[in-house]
Structure formats: structure tokens, C-alpha cells
Amino acid sequence: MLYIYLAVTEAAVSIALFQEENYLQQHIFYVSKSLIDTEKRYTPAEKLVLALVVAKRKLRQYFEAHTITVLTNQPIKAILSRPDLLGRVTKWTIELGAFDIRYQLRTSKRGQVVADFLIECYPIEGMHEKQNDTAGAGCSEETPWELYADGSSNRAGAGVRIVLSSLEGIELEYSIGLDFPASNNVAKYEALVLG
User: Fold this and answer.
1) How far is CA 128 from CA 8, 33, 116, 125, 135, in A?
2) Which end of the chain is more exposed for a tag (fewer CB within 10 A), N or C?
3) Percent of the chain, pLDDT > 70?
4) Between 87-97 and 44-58, two packed helices, what is the crossing angle to 10 degrees?
């Protein structure tokens, strides 16, 4: 069985596809889509359904061969089963209805972290101007830091190492053991998130 996590912002949607074996989630694929002007005006519920449709279109081979479980804390199943749907949502419902898609309440945020993190790092036009405006209000001058992050795993467990260094020569080093089983990729994502 395959699992999908969805993330939505004002400017983009992202999807992370995982396979779970022995309670260990292995990342298979990541998809994101920048929204056009019309799609940016969709309601958050419509954007969530759009994310699932984008996943189905880009990862069709997985949808055709496997049962897909969408892990979410949003009522997607209820949205798709409403009788008063708009035209585009009705089309999406028909398009998704051809596949074995199940909806399950998300209890763990582990896999969702990857989808959320990647969409938060998605470049948004004009974002840098907004950050510079707000940064100037509280700080007189920006001092850049460099982040070095890495993660790894083996049979004994998984861990991450993070090093922050400033131009003034200040170095902060952190080594953190993860309290859940993780692949090398997941450990690296965790290192970046913790960094």
C-alpha cells in the first residue's frame, strides 16, 4: 500500500508519496506544482483536491497499480462526495473515482514534514521583498549564517549532524539521535528541518 501526504500554500501544491513496510515509511516520489493565477483563487479545499489530481496525473503508474491512501487531517472524502460541487471539482471527482483511493486521518506528522518543508521552500515571486521589509523593522543589519546539515542511518539507529557558522567565526555544532527508524534520505530531511 502507498501513502500520500498533501501540502498546500497560496502559490503551490506539493505531494509526497511513501511506501510503508514494517512501520517504516520510505519516500518514493515528490511532486510539486506552481499555481497559475486562476488556481490561486481556489478555496483551500479546492487546492487540496487539486493537489491530489496533480498527484494522480504525474504518478499515474502508481495509482493504477496500487491502493493509494491519502493521509490528511482535511475532509477530502466529504468534499468529493458533496452533491453541490462546482464543475471543476465534479470533473476531478470523476477523474479520481477510477482509482482505488482511500482517505485516512493523519495521526503521524513524520511524512507530512517532508511535503510541508519542501513547499515552504518553494520560491514565491516577491517573497524576498516581503522578508526584507519585515526584517528591517526589528533588526538593524542582517548577519548571514551558513548551515551544514547531514543525516544517516544504519541498523543501530539514525542521527543527524548540524553545524551553523557565522562570518564572525562562531560555530554551533549539534548531533542528534532520532528516536524513530529512518532511511538515509529521511535522516537528511530531518537534519535540514532541524537545522
Assistant:
1) 20, 20, 19, 8, 10
2) N
3) 79
4) 40
